[in-house]
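Hi support team,

I've been running sequence recovery on a batch of backbones for a student project. Most finish fine, but this one hangs at about 90% for roughly twenty minutes before it completes. I'm not sure whether the input is malformed or the queue is just slow. I've pasted the structure tokens below so you can try to reproduce it. Let me know if you need the job ID as well.

Thanks,
M.K.
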């Protein structure tokens, strides 16, 4: 392939990145701006011009999927022979190759796939009680420490300085850490962090190994550079050996893995550390419509902190699309039902289910949407987590709930019975535990309690056959039957379906339609985000979610977790929703009406709060089904044209197009019904009410008198 073909179709900024001379290059690439295209074309351009040899290039990224995509693109561009691997895969290959030399003829030790079992043994040795979930949280702390180049003795100070929330006292975690390292060495195994450290040690301490590796790899490209941790950076520095032929690409606004040890500091400091670096900003967004891009810019524009210094203002390149839909529902169940219905409608229009995603802050939120999609007969797949009823803690809880039926007095109310049964599994309604896995387990079990509360509040009487109505059974046994029914429905296999995913697991992916749900303070940002840096990372999570959407974007939250529950505020990072927060609406009810503030109304179809003026006028969401009477609309238009000509005013002065559509949908026949349409007040009623009612009743426009002689309906 010729170089002009490699350069064809690149925008000016991409072309600058591709043709930049050898040396340090920093590509700041916003979401959807073609970063993978830029770096693969840069590699191909340099190899095709003869500037570099393909076998001397090492491109590293963070997922096997991204590495495979990079290799495929390079092959299509004619740059065969380039190594594209994850940090771990590249290090593993080198350690295996040099192990006999580094280990006096021995092969590389066995690689530990999971730390949990060995961490459990270490916890017992340190006198720390840790079940499977607790072991996972301790393993996460050890991974953070090792990735941050922190030794066991240094952990307490480092964890405190980093504002970590470990599952146990830092000193105890340090004891477990030290015991884990001892057990691991005695069993002759290494973990993934050890492997990276071994690769660093092999280069830094063995000149012959360093020379061989540096002769092999002379030009480096690092994707997602905002996600590197100190250990990975140490390995990259070892590979470079003081050389500067390094291209990095990243977006500080997508830094969302700080809890694992990743830091955007290396990306932020790149131009300062390498004074001669070429810095290129990619801001043309080819993924999303201008409407989605505009909202993404609005979300990240308010960002603060070091990452905000590299904030990019994206410029949408796609044709115009629908405005993002901002919706507020009375509770989570109503939100999930509306989302499921909208998914079904989109699929009916021809959008593939696999091109739709529902994204949330925590995996524990998925159950409500799994249930709603099942009820709506919409197929779905859960990404990055097990389905709710397949999770170990939920299976254990269901066993405990069934066992509790025999020991629970029949008069015990459902919710206390469920709480008491879950206590047998170690769950408590008090403050959730520290640690990611333990907290997620707690939230999943809390979702069962919320489900019990919802089940207990359902209507007390339900019709049964032809015999009338009977008292609804809200016993623990009946609730167990309900859980079994839900679990059975949601075990049906699905090949293609709507994606359910957390915001973290959605990074790097994109869909035609994206639903961002549960956008309430306390969920996003999570209540556990307390420091300014933690809150800013939550803002970036929302930004990542918004930028996953190509065309349709829905943002919503429930004012309460369940009907009658404690009211919640909308996500603080969405200024469009802040104007209609529950607190403000409560305040508005106690104040005199302010004509400058838009009145809040609800969709008559789905119940969502309507935010846009045109939506309030119609009385429904744009996406909800319309019951428009087209004949009536035509009569309204004919009458308006005649009336405007008689009064010598523009047609919109009589009624706007949106008002005509609203009247043709709602067909008002009384003054109260006409006044209920947003934008119609006593004056319009007085002027045109008689004619509107006559037209609704079937009158011909030519037979309806003009507004100039209208009877006053305002008295």
């Amino acid at each position: 392939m010729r170089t002009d073909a490699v350069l064809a179709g690149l925008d000016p900024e991409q072309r600058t990145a591709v043709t930049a001379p050898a040396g340090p290059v920093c590509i700041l690439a916003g979401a959807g701006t073609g970063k993978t295209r830029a770096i693969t074309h840069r590699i191909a351009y340099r190899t095709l011009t003869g500037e570099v040899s393909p076998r001397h290039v090492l491109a590293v990224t963070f997922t096997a999927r991204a590495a495979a995509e990079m290799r495929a693109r390079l092959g299509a561009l004619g740059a065969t022979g380039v190594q594209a691997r994850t940090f771990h895969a590249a290090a593993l290959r080198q350690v295996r190759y040099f192990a006999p030399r580094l280990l006096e003829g021995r092969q590389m030790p066995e690689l530990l796939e999971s730390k949990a079992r060995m961490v459990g043994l270490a916890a017992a040795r340190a006198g720390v009680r840790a079940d499977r979930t607790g072991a996972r949280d301790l393993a996460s702390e050890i991974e953070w420490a090792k990735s941050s180049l922190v030794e066991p003795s240094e952990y307490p100070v480092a964890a405190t300085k980093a504002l970590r929330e470990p599952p146990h006292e830092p000193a105890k975690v340090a004891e477990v850490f030290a015991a884990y390292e001892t057990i691991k060495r005695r069993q002759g195994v290494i973990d993934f962090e050890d492997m990276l450290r071994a690769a660093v040690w092999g280069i830094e301490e063995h000149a012959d190994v360093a020379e061989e590796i540096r002769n092999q790899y002379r030009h480096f490209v690092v994707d997602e550079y905002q996600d590197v941790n100190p250990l990975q950076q140490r390995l990259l520095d070892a590979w470079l050996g003081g050389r500067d032929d390094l291209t990095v690409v990243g977006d500080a606004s997508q830094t969302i893995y700080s809890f694992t040890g990743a830091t955007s500091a290396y990306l932020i400091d790149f131009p300062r550390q390498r004074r001669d670096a070429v810095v290129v900003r990619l801001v043309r967004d080819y993924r999303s419509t201008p409407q989605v891009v505009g909202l993404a810019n609005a979300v990240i524009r308010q960002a603060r902190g070091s990452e905000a210094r590299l904030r990019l203002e994206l410029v949408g390149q796609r044709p115009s699309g629908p405005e993002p839909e901002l919706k507020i529902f009375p509770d989570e169940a109503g939100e999930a039902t509306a989302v499921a219905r909208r998914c079904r409608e989109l699929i009916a229009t021809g959008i593939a289910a696999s091109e739709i995603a529902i994204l949330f802050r925590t995996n524990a939120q998925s159950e409500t949407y799994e249930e709603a999609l099942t009820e709506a007969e919409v197929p779905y797949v859960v990404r990055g987590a097990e389905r709710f009823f397949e999770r170990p803690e939920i299976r254990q809880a269901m066993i405990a709930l069934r066992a509790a039926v025999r020991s629970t007095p029949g008069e015990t109310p459902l919710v206390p019975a469920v709480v008491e049964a879950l206590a047998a599994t170690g769950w408590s309604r008090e403050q959730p535990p520290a640690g990611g896995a333990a907290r997620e387990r707690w939230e999943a079990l809390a979702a069962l309690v919320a489900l019990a509360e919802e089940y207990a509040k359902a209507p007390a009487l339900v019709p049964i056959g032809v015999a009338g109505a009977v008292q609804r059974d809200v016993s623990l046994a009946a609730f167990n039957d309900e859980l079994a029914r839900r679990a059975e429905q949601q075990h049906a296999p699905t090949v293609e379906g709507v994606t359910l995913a957390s915001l973290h697991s959605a990074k790097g992916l994109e869909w035609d339609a994206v639903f961002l749900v549960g956008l309430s303070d306390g969920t996003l940002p999570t209540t556990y985000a307390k420091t300014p840096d933690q809150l800013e990372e939550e803002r970036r999570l929302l930004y990542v979610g918004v930028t996953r959407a190509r065309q349709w974007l829905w943002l919503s939250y429930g004012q309460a977790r369940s009907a009658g529950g404690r009211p919640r505020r909308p996500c603080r990072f969405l200024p469009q929703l802040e104007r209609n927060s529950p607190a403000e609406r409560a305040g508005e009810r106690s104040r005199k009406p302010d004509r400058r503030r838009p009145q809040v109304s609800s969709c008559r179809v789905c119940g969502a709060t309507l935010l846009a003026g045109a939506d309030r006028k119609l009385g429904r969401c744009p996406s909800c089904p319309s019951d428009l009477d087209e004949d009536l609309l035509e009569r309204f238009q004919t009458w308006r044209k005649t009336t405007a000509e008689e009064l010598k005013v523009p047609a919109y002065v009589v009624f706007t197009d949106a008002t005509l559509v609203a009247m043709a949908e709602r067909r008002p026949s009384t003054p109260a019904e006409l006044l209920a349409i947003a934008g119609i007040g006593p004056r319009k009623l007085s002027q045109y009410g008689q004619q509107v009612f006559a037209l609704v009743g079937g009158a011909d426009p030519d037979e309806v008198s003009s507004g100039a002689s209208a009877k006053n309906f305002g008295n």
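--
Follow-up from support: It reproduced on our side and the slowdown came from queue contention, not your input. The chain has 30 helices and 20 strands. No action needed from you.
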